[in-house]
Design goal:
single chain, four-stranded antiparallel beta sheet, Aspartate Aminotransferase, domain 1, Aspartate Aminotransferase, domain 2, about 400 residues, alpha/beta, 14 helices
């Protein structure tokens, strides 16, 4: 009969069977239902620079980008991306052949993995990892191989075991998928760590996809160093970033890829059948944003560092073990000092207990038991919101 389906075969592709509604949707709905402060999903609660918002309005009114922009992205933005890479990191890219504009970094990652993987290829990723990584690897038919970041010492942050990374490489390894600064742990890979990763990639002829969306959100003595700057890496690295985190316009979904021409062509071949193009007027605004003076980026970092310190201190006072991040706008905590061990149960109960929403880090792990006691909080909120959240969280210690 019309409308009926066979019960012999599930409707959802088996590669995606393990992926249901994301934890972000669940926890954000819980925040609305309970009237809680949402420190779960990582988006700012204020817009970015007024002049950049006005640049988007101006583009809309002038009719720039209201129709399909060029498939690779508007020339102005591709040029701005290339100039940013040169000015910041000394990386020279041809805007016409080595830059591709995407619908945010998420699409860039999806397109890169769909383009570069064959079924059965192994992909090494740093665990915990953003949930779209696992889904994109699955859609491409690849096999994910997690290498786990672990707390170096109590409260001192998570580090990569380079020996474990080397041991994870097999003859089937095709690609390394790296995220630095790292969500959710806040780890920023150091120059010696990146140098060893580069040597490993060259030695085994591996491709590397780097998610660098938090490139400008680094604190204290941390420094973001693109992997593509290391010997032998420019020709094998797909570098990905976006405007959302840096300029606080996450809804605009403007991202980009920089890579050697062959890699950009491959990624574009997949990307053109995902969205084809997107964010027309916003591309013009982001081109202007990338040319903002250094003071903008310095002020952004200082503002977020102060917010990090406020929330980190409050969480510690509430009884959490706090892993102070070197980058991103997330803080990972350990809930075991509170007598808890199940991050899912803790986060689902937290809105009723304290009126705050967080994310259980276990969703970012293949090894769920390893991530079970860790919970992530976002600090990209207004100061008064964070202050109220801290006040509420202190109920846990009473």
């Amino acid at each position: 009969m019309a409308g009926m389906t066979s019960s012999a075969r599930p409707l959802l592709n088996r590669r995606l069977a393990e992926f249901g509604t994301t934890i972000f949707a669940e926890m954000s709905a819980l925040a609305v239902r309970t009237g809680s402060i949402n420190l779960g999903q990582g988006f700012p609660d204020t817009d970015g620079p007024e002049e950049i918002r006005e640049a988007a309005v101006r583009a809309l009114r002038d009719g720039r980008g209201n129709q399909y922009p060029p498939g690779p992205g508007i020339p102005e933005l591709r040029t701005a991306v290339a100039e940013h890479q040169l000015r910041r990191y000394g990386l020279s890219y041809d805007p016409d052949t080595e830059v591709l504009v995407t619908a945010g970094a998420t699409e860039a990652i999806a397109a890169a993995l769909l383009a570069l993987l064959e079924p059965g290829d192994e992909v090494i990723a740093l665990e915990p990892y953003y949930d779209s990584y696992a889904a994109c690897i699955a859609m491409a038919g690849g096999k994910r191989v997690p290498v786990t970041l672990r707390p170096h010492q109590e409260g001192a942050g998570f580090r990569l075991d380079l020996g474990e990374l080397r041991d994870a490489v097999t003859p089937r390894t095709r690609l390394l998928l790296l995220n630095t600064p790292h969500n959710p742990t806040g780890t920023v890979l150091t120059r010696p760590e990146l140098a060893e990763i580069a040597r490993l990639a060259v030695e085994h002829d591996l491709l590397v996809v780097t998610d660098e969306v938090y490139e400008h959100l680094v604190y204290d003595d941390a420094e973001h160093i693109p992997l593509a700057t290391f010997p032998g890496m420019r020709e094998r690295t797909v570098s990905i970033s976006s405007a959302g985190k840096t300029f606080s316009f996450t809804g605009w979904k403007v991202g980009w890829v920089t890579a050697a021409p062959g890699l950009v062509t491959a990624v574009r071949s997949a990307k053109q059948f995902l969205t084809y193009v997107s964010s027309g007027p916003f591309q013009y605004a982001v081109a202007e944003a990338l040319a903002l003076p250094d003071t903008y980026f310095e002020t952004l970092r200082a503002d977020l560092r102060a917010k990090r310190d406020l929330l980190a201190s409050g969480l510690a006072q509430a009884g959490f073990t706090v892993f102070r991040p070197a980058g991103t706008y997330f803080i990972t905590t350990d809930i075991r000092p509170l007598g808890e061990g199940d991050g899912f149960a803790f986060c689902r109960a937290l809105p009723e207990r304290a009126g705050v929403v967080a994310i259980p880090n276990a969703v970012f792990y293949d090894h769920r038991e390893t991530g079970a006691p860790f919970v992530r909080f976002a600090f990209c909120k207004q100061l008064h919101v964070l202050e109220e959240a801290v006040s509420r969280l202190k109920r846990l210690a009473s």
